[in-house]
Every structure is written in structure tokens, then in C-alpha cells.
Structure to design on (243 residues):
């Protein structure tokens, strides 16, 4: 949710290190942080691509002949695009139970989650993530993350706060923030509905959605991974089961 932000002049400059993104371009040369809320979809997509590249470089992507890549391709064979939006799925070799979506349609799932799910349960989880993309939730999170970083920099400055550059480490922080984005209950319900829609379109009933959420609920004791960004798995399972 956007907070009222103090006016701050934004200086145009090129990002450092290997991340070569112009801040003025990202925020439309806005004269205030409030105006930065009008960042264009194209600029958010550029941030998403940069975040995807950053996260892929940080993680161990399953190889082409990996059992995870093979299985993921099978489960998503009818889900390569949705409503005209191209989708790209990759698996990270990581025991953490997690999955996330970026605004550009890049969806990443951890091997730890794949190990816990049947194919239909995995399809629901991936459909849920597709929902965050199609419904614009991940785009809203990207915009919010950018504004939060701008506000933090403004608050740390003395005199007239100036957001001059985003360093490579700051872009990395933005990318990792998108992995652990906190979605509202309404966004989670909408994404669940999307996951159910994907299941139905591929000839499956709601049982896989319920069992997937029950599994996530049973694993949520540590409060990490997918549970930090997709809370209340148990109540969501109850809700779907009662439909």
C-alpha cells in the first residue's frame, strides 16, 4: 500500500556494476517519489528482467537433463503462455520449499517444493503463481519495492534527499524482495482461484489444490520459504474445500 511520500528530486544516472539500468528512465524522470508511482509497465518489466537475471545468477538452475527440468516441462506443457502473456518456468536446485513469480512471467520453483508435491499439486501451485502475474500482483509488488527503496534513500539523506543511483547490491536486494513479496489476503484468494482455474482447464478437480495447501500448512512451522510470502495455507485450504 502506497504511503504519502515527501517530494524528492531524482537525478538521472547509470547503474553501477553489471546492472546497467537508468534510474531516471525507471521512474520517468519524476520530480517526486509520489510521481514515481506512475512508473510505466515497460519500466517495471525492465526491472523484472534484471531481477530475473540476478536471481538466476544467484541460484543453481536445474540442468536441461535434470529430473526436475523434465518434470517441470511435463507439468507446464499446456501452460507456456496465458492470456497472451509468455510464461517461463525454471527449477532451482534448492531444498527450500518455495516458488515465486516475477512481473515478466518468469516463474521459479525450488526442487524442495517439487519433492513434496504430486504433479497435480505442483500444477496448482504454479497456476497460483501464474495468477499473481496475470492479475498484476507481482507488478504491484515490484512498484512497491522500488518506492520503498527510494523512500529509504530519501530518509537517509540530509538536506534535499536525492536518489542518484541504484547499485548492483541494491538491485540484488530488490530482486530478493520480490521473491519474498508479502501478498494481501485478497491477492492470495485471487491467485488461488487462478490455480483452481488452471486445474479445471486441464481436467483436474479441486482436490489437488486442497492437498497442496494442506502440505504447505504442515510444513509451515519454520515460517520460512514459501510460507513467508504465501501465508494462511490452512485457512485457504478450508476455503477451497468448502466451495
Amino acid at each position: 500500500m502506497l504511503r504519502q511520500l515527501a517530494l524528492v528530486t531524482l537525478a538521472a544516472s547509470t547503474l553501477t556494476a553489471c546492472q546497467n539500468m537508468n534510474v531516471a528512465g525507471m521512474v520517468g524522470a519524476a520530480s517526486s517519489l509520489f510521481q514515481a508511482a506512475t512508473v510505466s509497465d515497460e519500466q517495471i518489466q525492465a526491472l523484472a528482467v534484471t531481477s530475473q537475471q540476478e536471481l538466476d545468477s544467484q541460484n543453481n538452475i536445474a540442468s536441461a537433463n535434470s529430473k526436475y527440468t523434465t518434470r517441470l516441462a511435463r507439468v507446464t506443457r499446456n501452460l507456456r503462455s496465458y492470456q497472451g502473456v509468455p510464461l517461463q518456468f525454471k527449477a532451482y536446485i534448492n531444498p527450500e520449499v518455495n516458488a515465486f513469480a516475477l512481473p515478466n512471467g518468469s516463474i521459479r520453483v525450488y526442487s524442495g517444493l517439487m519433492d513434496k508435491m504430486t504433479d497435480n499439486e505442483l500444477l496448482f501451485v504454479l497456476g497460483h503463481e501464474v495468477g499473481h502475474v496475470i492479475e498484476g500482483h507481482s507488478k504491484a509488488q515490484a512498484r512497491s519495492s522500488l518506492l520503498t527503496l527510494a523512500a529509504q534513500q530519501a530518509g537517509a539523506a540530509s538536506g534535499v534527499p536525492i536518489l542518484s543511483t541504484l547499485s548492483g547490491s541494491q538491485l540484488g536486494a530488490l530482486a530478493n524482495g520480490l521473491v519474498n513479496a508479502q501478498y494481501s489476503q485478497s491477492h492470495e484468494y485471487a491467485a488461488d482461484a487462478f490455480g483452481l482455474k488452471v486445474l479445471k482447464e486441464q481436467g483436474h478437480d479441486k482436490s489437488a489444490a486442497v492437498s497442496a495447501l494442506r502440505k504447505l500448512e504442515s510444513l509451515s512451522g519454520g515460517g520460512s520459504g514459501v510460507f513467508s510470502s504465501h501465508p494462511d495455507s490452512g485457512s485457504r485450504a478450508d476455503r477451497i474445500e468448502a466451495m
The longest strand covers residues 88-92. Confidence is low (pLDDT under 50) at residues 1-36, 155-165, 222-229. Strands lie at 81-82, 85-86, 88-92, 99-101, 106-110.
